[in-house]
Each structure stands twice: as C-alpha cells, then as structure tokens.
User: What shape does this take?
Amino acid sequence: MRILLDTCALIWLVNGGSELSLTAKATIQQAETVWVSAVSAWEMGIKHARGKLVLDGGLESWIERALRQHHLREMPLDIRSALRASRLPAIHADSADRLLIASALEHGLTLLTPDPAISRYPGISLLW
Assistant: This one.
C-alpha cells in the first residue's frame, strides 16, 4: 500500500505516535511507500510562523529529520494536483487538506487522516 500522511499524522508520527490509531500505526509500518506532501511543510510553516506549532530545532531540520528517521518520501505539489484541488466539491474549506486530497486522488494514494469530513469526497481512499 502507498499512503500519503495528513499533516497531523506526520506530526503525531514524529512525536512518538501516541495520537495515531492502531490502524494508522500498522499501516505506516507495513506500507510500501509513505509519502509526505510539500503541502504539509507549507501548512506547518504557516503554523510555526504564527507560534501555533513549536518544532524542536526549527522547521527545516525537523522536516529533514522526519523524512530520514521514518523513511518518508517527499511528494512535491504538481500542477495536476493543484488543478484538481480547485475542482473538488466544496466539502472542506481547508486549502491544505484540499491539496492533500487532490494529491492522493491524482497519484492513487491512500490518505492517512483522522478527519471524517474527507471521507465525503468521491473516490478518496482513506485510513485511520
């Protein structure tokens, strides 16, 4: 299975995983590939700049360490996913989540997220 981590799932994984569901933990361990979107870095950067997210060592080193220690793959935001996000039904108002949803759909990935609203998007494969 190939999965894309929601931003909160990434943060929880790196912080020890206690907030992750048992299914989420098992899926991460067994996945063929675990992707992290550039969108999550952007979202975390905004929260970090506003003082709503404290990261040990700063954002850049935190992300680099997370990728390396958890064997995560970086997924850049591509034009097809950005365009698809703009065409999604107006179910979710969060721009970062819409970009993650579109990326998962565009690349055939399962999105690992605790957000129940995302399940209302047609064709999305979710796990939590």
In short: Residues 2 and 33 are 5 Å apart (CA to CA). Residues 95-107 form the longest helix (13 residues).
